[in-house]
Amino acid sequence: MTDAIVIKNLTKSFKNQKVLEGINLVVPQGKMLALLGPNGAGKTTTIRILSTLLNADGGQALVGGFDVAREPKRVRSIIGLTGQYAAVDEYLNGRENLEMMGALYHLGKSKIKPRAQELLEQFDLVEAASKPVKTYSGGMRRRLDLALSLISTPPIIFLDEPTTGLDPRSRILMWDIIKKLMEQGVTILLTTQYLEEADKLADRIAVLDKGKIIAEGTPTELKSRVGSERIEITIDHKSDFKKAVSLIQGSGLRQNPEERSIGISTDGSVKEIKRVLDILDGAGIEIDAMSVHTPTLDDVFLHFTGKETNNITQ
Ligand SMILES: Nc1ncnc2c1ncn2[C@@H]1O[C@H](COP(=O)(O)OP(=O)(O)O)[C@@H](O)[C@H]1O
Ligand SMILES: [Mg+2]
Question: Which CATH number fits domain 229-293: 3.30.930.10, 3.40.50.300, 3.30.70.100, 2.120.10.30?
Fold first, then answer.
């Protein structure tokens, strides 16, 4: 199988700030890679280089076999890029926007209208098709933005945080749309701040932190390294807190003494949960509350860097 996207030792600085410090990634044809990272990690910079909007300082990037620096036109002809909204005209309606984009891509008069209709249906925008875009909700805008980038049926698609800031319903709708795209065999590079999103959609996940890939693997591999579930325990008495932490220990333990809470990575099994509870019980330490939840981006970062993200949007 050929690789749709190949990134070798890619570097980029803005003034004195190193934003990408030698990134290596491969996305095989027809697969999806999620680039997972907090704000400022370098996700958009990577996407902008791959989509020929920005030059790298060093290294190489091939998209569809074409070098982004040497053959930008060829690259542009085979990619779809979303996340910029640059293409959307606020005063036109959804259908007009799609038809205008079709014309821009020289789609041919007979093809434009059916393709626009097809995309409106696929993206749940039929009802909104004749309304001006300035009346659209955030979720509708995202969907139109994605539809616009697909007008020419590109085989390689870049999705830059397609669901950040969306309400849960719109997010799920967007996930369904992305899944359908994958069934059609397109190659997707998606960036996200949500482990859950990467986990649900992607074949592989690369975790980006301050311009470096700090972990890479399938969602299952990554989760088994981080722990597929987290237990959060609140200790009843403050005086027991230190003792509880020292008794439980283990990888990925996170403590918050003020809230008397302890977070632990586990495999989510009843056996493991029981083990922790038995330790506390055996020491006569009472607990106030306990919950089990799936890991977040913060948990992934805590595991791989020992630090939590300084994410401002989350
Ligand atoms: N055009 C630019 N000029 C200067 N600094 C930039 C520019 N674009 C991005 N940066 C900086 O590069 C870092 C990475 O940005 P970005 O790639 O947008 O991260 P992400 O998309 O992961 O949030 C940030 O610190 C950001 O401030
Ligand atoms: Mg970004």
Answer: 3.30.70.100
